């Protein structure tokens, strides 16, 4: 690896968003054979111990900056007059959030290859975009990246998360089940989040049904449901589960509970998705679509419900 070629991805956002930036940087750096460096904004995230990130902050004075900017895939459907929020969410769909295409990745690779001879080059992505781990797995199947790339990068992210600490290994027999309910999906209809975070998809009735089936599959296991304290009122109506409702200061603890569960059921949530990627336990996947988790070949750890 050329230690003099650096890559950094910077953006603001909630903890989960910055976590995605950190992991995107590692993925892109690994695929392009670059050294990953972190930006100051990464200190704002609450999930990853920044001490586990063994990298250096680049010196702007000693770096030639090259911006890697994917072209926005703007309008997939014709824009109609309506509420601005609805237009942004429904019509102005960028590939940034869904993950860059193989074509964009190849363009980035060509830029990097052309500049391999240069020293102290800092590659910066402008705007917000992602590469998700499922993409690496799919590209590997399609022959677009080297075999073993997915597991190599996943192992690196696991080590990055745990640092010097020994990762908690789940029980072979399922004793500890953790379910994540995304904030707002199970909020009271009077709450503003009820209308902005996908109501009607992951409802309280959905969770009741799935938890009932899980109990039949694993009658002796403890079931813990994780969510946010202020936007999860309806979860209290589910009987027989341990309900752990947290706040901002609980995000790191909740994330660790997801990662270390014997069986983890993610929601349609970026936080859930990355916990599932890092988990060594079984992952329970329902018929509903989970963002950034669209494998061409399902991992062996998956259990369909």
How would you describe this protein?
The structure is a single chain. This protein has 305 residues and is an alpha/beta fold. The protein has two domains: 5-162, no CATH class; 176-304, 3-Layer(aba) Sandwich (Rossmann fold), CATH 3.40.50. The chain is 32% helix and 14% strand. The protein has helices spanning 15-31, 84-90, 95-98, 102-114, 133-141, 149-162, 204-217, 251-260, 270-278, and strands at 5-9, 35-36, 64-68, 121-125, 176-180, 222-228, 242-246, 263-265, 282-285, 302-304. A six-stranded parallel β-sheet has the order 7-6-5-8-9-10, with helices on one face. β1, α1 (15-31) and β2 form a beta-alpha-beta unit. Mean pLDDT is 80; it is low at 73-94.
Q: Quickly count the helices.
A: 9
Structural class: alpha/beta
Total number of strands:
10
Dominant shape: elongated
Spans where pLDDT lies below 50 across 5 or more residues: 73-94
What proportion strand? 5-15%
Characterize this entry briefly.
With 305 residues, this protein is of the alpha/beta class.
């Amino acid at each position: 690896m050329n230690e003099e070629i650096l890559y950094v991805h910077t953006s603001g956002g909630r903890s989960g968003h910055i976590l995605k930036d950190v992991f995107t940087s590692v993925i892109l750096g690994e695929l392009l054979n670059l050294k990953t460096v972190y930006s100051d904004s990464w200190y704002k995230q609450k999930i990853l111990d920044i001490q586990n990130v063994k990298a250096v902050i680049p010196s702007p004075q000693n770096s030639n900056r090259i911006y890697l900017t994917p072209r926005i895939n703007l309008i997939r459907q014709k824009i109609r007059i309506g509420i601005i929020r609805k237009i942004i969410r429904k019509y102005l769909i960028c590939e940034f959030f869904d993950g860059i295409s193989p074509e964009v990745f190849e363009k980035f690779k060509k830029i990097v290859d052309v500049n391999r001879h240069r020293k102290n080059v800092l590659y910066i992505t402008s705007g917000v975009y992602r590469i998700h781990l499922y993409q690496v797995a799919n590209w590997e199947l399609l022959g677009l990246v080297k075999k073993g790339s997915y597991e190599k990068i996943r192992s690196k992210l696991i080590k990055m998360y745990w640092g010097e600490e020994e990762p908690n290994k789940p029980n072979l027999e399922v004793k500890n089940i953790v379910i994540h309910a995304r904030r707002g999906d199970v909020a009271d209809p009077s709450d503003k989040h009820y209308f902005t975070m996908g109501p009607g998809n992951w409802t309280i009735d959905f969770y009741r049904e799935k938890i009932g089936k899980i109990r039949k599959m694993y009658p002796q296991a403890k079931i813990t449901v994780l969510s946010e304290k202020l936007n999860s009122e309806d979860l209290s109506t589910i009987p027989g589960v341990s309900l752990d409702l947290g706040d901002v200061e609980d995000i790191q603890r909740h994330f660790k509970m997801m990662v270390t569960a014997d069986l983890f059921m993610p929601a349609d949530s970026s936080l859930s998705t990355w916990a599932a990627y890092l988990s060594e336990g079984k992952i329970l996947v329902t018929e509903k679509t989970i963002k950034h988790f669209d494998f061409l070949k399902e991992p062996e750890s998956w259990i369909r419900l």
